[in-house]
Specification:
383 residues, 13 strands, Aspartate Aminotransferase, domain 1, Aspartate Aminotransferase, domain 2, binds pyridoxal-5'-phosphate, four-stranded antiparallel β-sheet
């Protein structure tokens, strides 16, 4: 019998894998599905981005470099300057990634020493599941911090003994699943705390451009020392299948990351990099997508609020985080909706210590028309 990493059996299937199974069972009964589960929006990738990719496929495609193309790094630095007013050296402060998820998973490898007592990675709970998984596979100790109320994670409230053991803290703003935005003062306070304790602070800003009213700030605005941010083109530019994102921040950390990532050869393809350069250089398509997501959010939010539900925050990102009604938990309520063909994620999927069990998450991925039809189905399901 081959001996495999026990974590693979200890951890439940990645939550989305399990959800796919349940969905398929209902679809097999011939029920029409309105799928609000996985954050993979239905709108097409803008034409100019697809064209940039096609134009960049050469007759011979050699290995890409870990550092990415100079064009892409420049486009990213220009975007960060336009969007957050932070000047970055594209050659030392920016590193393209193959989407944000692999970076979330691999980043603990940068800091975790599996033999050390201080090998803790701290992250918000509920939160994106890869924070925990990356920490564990790197041999770290995963420390989930329950979020309540406004769902904003304030690392300065961590006990001193946890801080003493911690090497990496994850922030996520705008937050998946709640859509909460961490204010700049809090980002600065978290950065100061981490500098004081020699902890690397990384803010996952995958939804930074998908807001409804006020543009969320970036951790980069708190200075580069000891910090990194992670961005993604997946939802911002409708490029989930391209797998493209970037890390930016402290040049000494970026240099170490280049070294680390050359081991598995984690480098996005150059034709993807060309499409990414086009996407980061254009703000107009993102503004259009914001209008689309805001319209979807308004429609669905109004429905749930009129029906007496508590729709939490959801100030940014592409989700509604809805409190389940009396007499239900996340699983039972999601199962009820699924019976009618409306697929939502039980909030517990995003939690480690039972966080999220009072919520369901709806990803605003169906089109506006589909959401209108889904609301008719929801009306029936909820009577
Ligand atoms: C908070 C957060 N971070 C990272 C990711 C991964 O994004 P990508 O598609 O770039 O891998 C997601 C995807 O849903 C996310 O919600």
């Amino acid at each position: 019998m081959p001996r495999i990493n026990p974590l693979l059996d200890q951890l439940a299937d990645y939550p989305m894998v399990e959800l796919e199974r349940r969905k398929q069972a209902v679809a097999d009964r011939g029920v029409r599905l309105f799928d609000f589960s996985i954050g993979d929006p239905h709108e097409p990738t803008p034409e100019f981005i697809r064209q940039a990719l096609c134009d960049a496929v050469p007759a011979r495609c050699g290995y890409p470099s870990i550092a990415g193309t100079a064009d892409l790094r420049r486009a990213i630095a220009a975007y960060v300057d336009r969007r957050f007013g932070v000047a970055l050296d594209p050659n030392t402060c920016v590193l393209p990634t193959s989407g944000a998820k692999e970076a979330v998973f691999h980043l603990p490898l940068l800091v975790v020493d599996p033999a050390a007592d201080d090998r803790t990675v701290v992250f918000p709970d509920p939160g994106y599941p890869a924070y925990q998984r990356g920490a564990l596979f790197a041999g770290g100790h995963a420390h989930a911090v329950p979020l309540t109320g406004d769902h904003i994670f304030r690392p300065w409230e961590l006990p001193a003994d946890v801080l003493a053991r911690t090497r990496l803290i994850w922030l996520n703003s705008p937050h998946n699943p709640s859509g909460a935005i961490t204010p700049l003062d809090d980002l600065k306070r978290a950065a100061d705390l981490c500098r004081e304790h020699d902890i690397v602070l990384i803010c996952d800003e995958a939804y930074a451009d998908l807001y409804h009213d006020t543009p969320p700030p970036s951790l980069l605005q708190a200075g580069l020392d000891g910090v990194l941010v992670l961005h993604s083109l997946s939802k911002r530019s409708g490029m989930t299948g391209y797998r493209s994102g970037f890390l930016a921040g402290d040049p000494s950390l970026i240099a170490r990351l280049r070294k680390l990532r050359s081991n598995p050869g984690l480098a996005p393809q150059d034709f993807v990099n060309a499409a990414a350069a086009a996407a980061w250089s254009d703000d107009a398509h993102v503004a259009e997508r914001r209008v689309t997501f805001s319209a979807k959010r308004a429609l669905l939010r109004r429905f749930f609020q009129d029906a007496g539900f508590d729709v939490h925050g959801s100030d940014a990102a592409i989700y509604l985080w809805v409190r389940v009604p009396e007499g239900h938990d996340d699983e039972s309520f999601a199962a009820l909706l699924l019976e009618h063909g409306v697929v939502v994620s039980p909030g517990g999927m995003y939690g480690v210590e039972g966080a999220g069990r009072q919520y369901i998450r709806l990803a605003l991925v169906p089109t506006l028309d589909e959401i209108g039809e889904a609301i008719d189905v929801l009306r029936v399901a909820l009577t």
